[in-house]
Amino acid sequence: MAVYKVTVRMLWSEQTFPKDYPMQRPKAQWSPVFGQSHNKSYTLFRVGEVAKSSVRNFAQYGKLDTMILEGEEDPRVYDQFSTPALGTGTGETENLVFVDTDHSEISMISKIIPSPDWFIGVDSLDLCVDSSWVDQIVLDLEPLDAGAASGLTFTAPRWENSPPGVVSKHKPRQQNHPAAGFYYPNKKELPPIAKVEFTKVKEYSSKEVNDLARKELLNNLHLKDKLKGLPKRKSLNNYQTTELNQEFTTKNNFDQLVELEEEPFGTPRPNLPNNKVEIVTNAPSTNIKMDEEFDSDLKNMDDVVLAVANGNRLGLGKRLPRHFRSRLHHAVNRIQPDDCLVSEWGSWTPCSVTCGFGDQFRTRSVIREKRGDGRNCPTLTDRKHCGNINSCAHIDYFEW
């Protein structure tokens, strides 16, 4: 795993882009920068392709909620971050992002305000080159059109395109109209409207990450134990004052990550079911005595690790960041000699129907039965839906 600082420098000034530069109501400014680290199969947006609805909505209205929820639910996304909005056309904003070897690409986006649906962005920048993390890289960013709405000028009325167009680059003659906001017919290329710099802050081995995750959990448990016996309101206020003083910028209390800000969107939202992980092996145990305040089904330290990894608060006052919860899963999910051991899933069967909706099945087999106190075998069959109504032959009910 590696930690990168993302620094975005906005260069949208009246001197650089004098044509129809927004001076007031609304003046030139930028939305928050939203970014994700992800694997190679994921795309936030791509020039020449139709953007997904959450990106089109963000490009038009600057709303992040849907993109955040989509990223939380997508296993291809590893970490998410945002930086503060800028109230002027020029300035600098930054945050941190976590990457690992399976999720080494970065994508990000920020809306140009005001505009119909214009934005800047980075599409799938790979920070791992030749099996090594890049130390630093700087990119020039150009204005993009999300294809969601029509409008030539920054303050033009917003008319949504139906169907939406593809994401495209603004060029000195594209849009080729004198009223267009980026129409500079005497230039060959537009100057960069922003720059982004990715700087490696620290690199971690798998063992270091697992050790940090367990150390963070133990520190939180010790803190909770210190607060035990104090008046509830006082203990909570003290904890929030010291550990949750800044919105979206809690700090970890172990040495290796001192002064590194936690990413803002890495915890599950309230009233949504937590993601569950099927554990089929025993984990290394510790001899820490459990408080009675914990749920009765938490029998040992490993149960606490799993519960916190699933996002449960357990009286700690806050959840761990998502990147540590994912590492906790790996730390405790180790094969033990007495555990049931199963094979990898086989291939999916063909769809059970050729028209409409059906089912597909896959199976796995037991390689080694459990012994003694080992973990039971997980389910050996799996099912998913397949097909669609459009696969049926068309029937013309009005054929006379």
Automatic annotation (TrEMBL):
Keyword annotations from UniProtKB, A to Z = Cell adhesion, Disulfide bond, Extracellular matrix, Glycoprotein, Metal-binding, Secreted, Signal
Q: Name one Pfam family in it.
A: Spond_N
Q: Name one GO cellular component term.
A: plasma membrane
* Major localization class: secreted
Q: Which regions span the lipid bilayer? A: none
| All copies of domain Spondin, residue ranges | 1-178
Q: Name where it's found.
A: Secreted, Extracellular space, Extracellular matrix
In terms of Gene3D superfamilies, this protein maps to: F-spondin domain (2.60.40.2130), Thrombospondin type-1 (TSP1) repeat (2.20.100.10)
Q: Which biological process terms from the Gene Ontology are attached to this UniProt entry?
A: actin cytoskeleton organization; cell adhesion
InterPro entries recorded = Spondin/Thrombospondin_T1, Spondin_N, Spondin_N_sf, TSP1_rpt, TSP1_rpt_sf, TSP1_spondin_dom
Concerning PROSITE patterns, the annotation shows: SPONDIN (PS51020), TSP1 (PS50092)
Keyword Disulfide bond in annotation: yes
Q: What does the record give under GO molecular function?
A: metal ion binding
Does the keyword Zinc belong to this entry?
no
Task: Give the top-rank taxon of the lineage listed in the UniProt record for this protein.
Answer: Eukaryota
The family database entries (PANTHER family) matched by this protein are listed as: SPONDIN, SPONDIN-2
Protein name, entry field: Spondin-2
